[in-house]
């Protein structure tokens, strides 16, 4: 399994953590980047990737898994190619496809590389989003990409591709959603799993301040409280996970810079829910706070 060099600043902080365990990598993260609830999450992801291991970010929707992957890409100074999984994902979506092209007046068959091919040849990160949305028979195609071989035979060109130095794989998974399937053991065992919980409290407040148009501190504090109440309701089984999506909350905060918070919550959170009981629950929370 190939290993990768970290940028110097990241190396220094990892070494400092090994010696003193300061518990913070926050200064490494650019504004708007993912700041995890526990800095060990970031440290463990950095260490695993630097050792050449694949990581699987596991957590509820809107918890920041994609932002986490983007932050890791930034820290490693690595571009990132993405695969968005669905039941329609096929070999062409992963590897690329053949198409007709012209060389002068002559018509030829050309191959347009897909994200797996590009990431391997470029020595970049590959991000596989919602990996458990793909059909079980599709993903075994890349088993060799995910283990020590880092190699695949392109089924469309018969080219044997071995990943260049710097290639790494980050995947994300939402558990228990309609349309998802359990990962088979052969696939799961190729990953280091990192649980990504919701961001709460002061970290959520800072994220709202850094990434949305909302500036009123009192309103921001109320949105932080609303998020905590929504998370509690999800944990108690009163609401589905999407009701506590941090992504949706940030959208509501953004809108609240220009319209009333209750209306912003209606547009960004309430109207996404399927059941009237769930919608009324969130509207009551918003009414109580705002």
TrEMBL record:
SUPFAM superfamilies: P-loop containing nucleoside triphosphate hydrolases
Superkingdom in the source lineage: Bacteria
Pfam families reported in the protein's UniProt record: AAA_5
Domain AAA+ ATPase residue range list: 51-200
Record-linked CDD domains: AAA
Family per similarity comment: Belongs to the CbbQ/NirQ/NorQ/GpvN family.
Protein's name according to its UniProt entry: AAA family ATPase
Species of origin: Oceanobacillus luteolus
């Amino acid at each position: 399994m190939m290993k990768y060099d970290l940028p110097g600043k990241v190396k220094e902080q990892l070494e400092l953590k090994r010696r003193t365990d300061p518990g913070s990598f926050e200064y490494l993260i650019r504004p708007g980047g993912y700041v995890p609830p526990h800095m060990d999450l970031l440290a463990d992801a950095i260490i695993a990737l630097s050792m050449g291991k694949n990581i699987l970010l596991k957590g509820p929707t809107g918890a920041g898994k994609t932002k986490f992957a983007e932050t890791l890409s930034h820290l490693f100074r690595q571009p990132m190619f993405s695969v968005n999984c669905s039941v329609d994902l096929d070999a062409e979506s992963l590897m690329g496809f053949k198409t007709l092209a012209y060389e002068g007046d002559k018509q030829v068959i050309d191959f347009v590389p897909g994200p797996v091919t590009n990431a391997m040849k470029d020595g970049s990160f590959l991000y596989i989003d919602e990996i458990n949305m793909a059909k079980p028979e599709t993903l075994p195609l890349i088993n060799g990409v995910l283990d020590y071989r880092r190699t695949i035979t392109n089924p469309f060109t018969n080219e044997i591709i071995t990943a260049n130095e710097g290639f790494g794989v980050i995947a994300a998974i939402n558990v228990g959603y309609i349309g998802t399937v359990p990962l088979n053991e052969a696939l799961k065992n190729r990953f280091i799993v990192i649980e990504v919980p919701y961001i709460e409290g002061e970290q959520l407040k800072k994220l709202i301040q850094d990434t949305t148009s909302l500036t009123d501190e009192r309103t921001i504090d109320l949105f932080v409280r609303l998020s905590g109440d929504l998370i509690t309701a999800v944990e108690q089984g009163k609401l589905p996970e999407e009701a506590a999506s941090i992504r949706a909350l940030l959208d509501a905060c953004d809108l609240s810079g220009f319209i009333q918070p209750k209306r912003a919550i209606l547009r960004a959170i309430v109207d996404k829910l399927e059941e009237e009981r769930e919608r009324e629950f969130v509207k009551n929370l918003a009414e109580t706070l705002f």
